[in-house]
């Protein structure tokens, strides 16, 4: 396991916001995420979890330090290349579900692949339908995203994150806005996909129950990794 | 369907109210342009058509006779002598070797018809009434290629054989004659004769209807003492507004005087030009308003859709695709809006043209609805749509996905 190159390797990652009033948000993060990891990211509000996720997800650039994904140092890549790498290797589940309200559940799931391949194709539709069946939304595929419940939307978001077969899914509080039962469903789904497909997950959560369901828990305090341990 | 078009269409469908309003706006704008262009083009065509319905594009005639010197009264031997010049009385003269000139004109590019004519003044009399007339001797076949004289006939036939003439409605009225009636024509040099009227034309011009009298070419040659000669060669070109250039070219190559209809109708032309200019100004401002409308709708939509654009970017949509999504929206708005405008403008134009009719059944306000006008309007609207979308689409592509998602 140690021989295998890390899926994501973060080296001395810092991020500060603001120019006159400088706010250090991340203050030197070193972290590795390996394939098939099911990793929780915990920490108090404002500790920099979402910021870290955005950096790993190539949505933002670090102030200093390196983000290496699948052996590629992403600092040197231009926007086009970052978009391509993101589309190929990473999936997102956002803190607020963030589906596209103008599109149906099925179209939302298909979207990353349509964007990548330039147009709708039959196999894309089949793949998206299959994923929606797996997350238990076979009956709701044609519903507009806005006509679904919060839990259903989050399941659509998970299907969308998985549709392009990413190596790693970054999920920002996927259960945060859900009731216990819906949260439990989503959590089960994450564990199931991790086991069956080998997809690595980095799950930000405030919920101890969710954290303890993961194999590894990274705890952040004030822009630094406070502890990194195997759970259970 | 390309991914960007798919998203663009959905966004337009999703923002139904905005889309509907801006489409109506573009439609009204394009409709006004079509209506205005059709009306002005139609009016101009009918004015020009009316002018050229009785006139050649270019009239070629011999140069005026040079003034001749009359001896002054100064003593011989002086270094300076006062001289007097005197213009000879202008008489009807023939173009030298006109058959060669005619052949040359027929070979000239841009010329579609040439007709030799003899035109000169005469007095038409009947009983005690007299009218100073313009006699035009023509060969019916060649002259018909220049002016559709037979189409102007309102009574009788266009027969100029023997001592037959065709006169205008006004002359017939003044003399109280109809077809079969007789009038006397008297030219300079005591040449003249009695002619019978075979037909009556209506040129829709009081002056021409009174003064113009058609006789055969030979008849006019006899009347003006031009044995075998012609005083003018009338030319029809293939481009109405190219007549001036054509005339210049002809004058250059033949050394003769060549007058275009444009030179003879300067005022009309200035009127037409300023009318076209004001029409263009109005169109430019309407297009500007349409462009600003499209741009502002798209700019608002970029703000409204910021979060969704962030999500699209985060899930693998390229920056260039985001740009294209908004360019597509501009293009679609422009095209669909202009189609609405085509419908609206056509309705308006047809309705307006049907409002008032001349006694002869033609429209008082003729409209020229052409494929060119439609095609041009749609093409312009498409271009304007895309151009208007450039700035909003750049804004959209520059949105930072991290920021818009975080502030969700
Ligand atoms: N664009 C920005 N400009 C300035 N400060 C920012 C910006 N984005 C985030 N911050 C600050 O960075 C800090 C960390 O924010 P972040 O969203 O990463 O925290 P978090 O751990 O995800 O918190 P939560 O659990 O509440 O989601 C916060 O203090 C926040 O105010
Ligand atoms: Mg957060």
Describe the structure in your own words.
The complex is a heterodimer of chains A (232) and B (408). Chain A has 232 residues and is an alpha/beta fold. Chain A has a single domain (8-230), classed as P-loop containing nucleotide triphosphate hydrolases (Rossmann fold, 3-Layer(aba) Sandwich). Chain A contains seven helices and ten strands. Chain A has helices spanning 49-56, 79-89, 105-117, 122-134, 150-162, 180-197, 208-212; strands at 8-17, 23-33, 38-42, 64-69, 72-73, 90-93, 168-172, 200-204, 216-221, 224-230. In chain A, strand 9 and strand 10 (224-230) form a beta hairpin. In chain A, helix 4 packs across helix 5. The longest helix of chain A has 18 residues, at 180-197. Chain A is globular and about 50 Å long. The model of chain A has no long low-confidence stretch (mean pLDDT 91). Chain B has 408 residues and is α+β, with helices and mostly antiparallel strands. Chain B is built from 15 helices and twelve strands. Helix content of chain B is 55%, strand content 18%. In chain B, strand 4 (111-126) and strand 5 form a beta hairpin. The mean pLDDT of chain B is 88. The longest helix of chain B is centred in the last third of the chain and has 39 residues, at 266-304. In chain B, helix 1 packs across helix 13 (319-355), helix 2 packs across helix 13 and helix 13 runs antiparallel to helix 14. Chain B has two domains: 3-52 and 269-407, no CATH class; 98-255, no CATH class. In chain B, the strands form two sheets. A six-stranded mixed barrel of chain B has the order 4-5-10-7-9-8. A two-stranded antiparallel sheet of chain B has the order 2-3. Chain A binds chain B through residues 50, 54, 57, 59-60, 79-80, 83-84, 86-87, 92, 94-96, 98-103, 111-112, 114-120, 160, 164, and chain B through 1-3, 6, 10-11, 13-14, 307-308, 311-321, 400-402, 405-406, 408. Residues 49-50, 95, 172 of chain A line the site of magnesium ion (MG).
């Amino acid at each position: 396991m140690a021989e295998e190159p890390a899926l994501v390797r973060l080296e001395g990652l810092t991020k500060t916001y603001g120019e006159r009033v400088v706010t250090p948000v991340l203050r030197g993060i070193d972290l590795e995420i390996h394939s098939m990891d099911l990793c929780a990211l915990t920490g108090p509000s404002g500790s920099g979890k979402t910021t870290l996720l955005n950096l790993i997800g190539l949505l933002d650039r670090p102030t200093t330090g390196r983000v290496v994904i699948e052996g590629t140092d992403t600092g040197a890549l231009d926007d086009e290349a970052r978009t391509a790498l993101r589309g190929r290797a990473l999936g997102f589940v956002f803190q607020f579900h963030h589906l596209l309200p103008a599109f149906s559940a099925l179209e939302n799931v298909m979207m990353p692949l349509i964007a990548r391949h330039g147009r709708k194709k039959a196999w894309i539709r089949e793949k998206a339908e299959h994923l929606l069946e797996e997350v238990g939304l076979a009956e709701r595929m044609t519903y507009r995203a806005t006509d679904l419940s919060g839990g259903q939307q989050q399941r659509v978001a998970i299907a969308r994150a998985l549709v392009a077969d990413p190596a790693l899914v970054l999920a920002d509080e996927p259960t945060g806005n859900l009731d216990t039962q819906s949260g439990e469903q989503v959590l089960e789904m994450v564990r199931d996909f991790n086991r069956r497909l080998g997809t690595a997950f980095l799950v930000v959560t405030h919920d101890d129950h969710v954290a303890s369901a993961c194999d590894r828990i990274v705890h952040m305090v004030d822009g630094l990794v406070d502890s990194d341990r195997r759970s259970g | 369907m390309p991914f960007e078009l798919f998203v663009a269409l959905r966004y337009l469908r999703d923002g139904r109210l905005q889309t509907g309003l801006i489409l109506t706006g573009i439609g009204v704008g394009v409709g006004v342009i079509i209506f205005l262009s059709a009306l002005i083009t139609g009016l101009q065509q009918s004015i020009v058509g009316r002018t050229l319905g009785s006139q050649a594009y270019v009239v070629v005639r011999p140069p005026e006779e040079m003034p001749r010197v009359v001896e002054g009264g100064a003593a011989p031997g002086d270094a300076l002598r006062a001289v007097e010049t005197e213009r000879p009385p202008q008489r009807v003269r023939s173009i030298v070797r006109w058959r060669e000139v005619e052949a040359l004109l027929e070979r000239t590019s841009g010329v579609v018809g040439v007709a030799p004519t003899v035109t000169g003044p005469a007095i038409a009399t009947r009983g005690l009434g007299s009218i100073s007339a313009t006699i035009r001797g023509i060969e019916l076949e060649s002259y018909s290629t220049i002016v559709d004289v037979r189409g102007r006939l309102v009574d009788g036939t266009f027969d100029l054989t023997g001592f037959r003439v065709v006169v205008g409605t006004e002359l017939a009225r003044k003399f109280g004659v109809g077809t079969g009636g007789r009038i006397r024509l008297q030219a300079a040099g005591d040449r003249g004769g009695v002619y019978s009227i075979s037909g009556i034309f209506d040129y829709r011009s009081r002056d021409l209807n009174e003064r113009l009298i058609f006789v055969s070419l030979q008849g006019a040659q006899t009347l003006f003492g031009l044995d075998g000669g012609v005083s003018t060669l009338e030319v029809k070109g293939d481009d109405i507004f190219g007549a001036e250039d054509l005339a210049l070219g002809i004058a250059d190559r033949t050394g003769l005087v060549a007058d275009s209809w444009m030179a003879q109708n300067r005022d009309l032309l200035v009127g037409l030009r300023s009318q076209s200019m004001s029409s263009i100004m109005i169109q430019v401002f309407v297009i500007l308003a349409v462009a600003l409308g499209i741009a502002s709708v798209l700019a608002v939509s970029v703000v409204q859709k910021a979060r969704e654009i962030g999500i699209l970017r985060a899930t693998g949509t390229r920056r260039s695709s985001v740009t294209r999504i908004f360019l597509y929206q501009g293009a679609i708005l422009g095209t669909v809006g202009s189609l609405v405008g085509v419908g609206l403008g056509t309705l308006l134009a047809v309705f307006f043209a049907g409002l008032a009719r001349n006694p002869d059944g033609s429209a008082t306000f003729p409209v020229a609805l052409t494929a060119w006008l439609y095609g041009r309007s749609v093409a312009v609207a498409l271009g304007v749509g895309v151009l208007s979308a450039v700035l909003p689409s750049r804004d959209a592509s520059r949105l930072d996905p991290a920021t818009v998602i975080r502030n969700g």
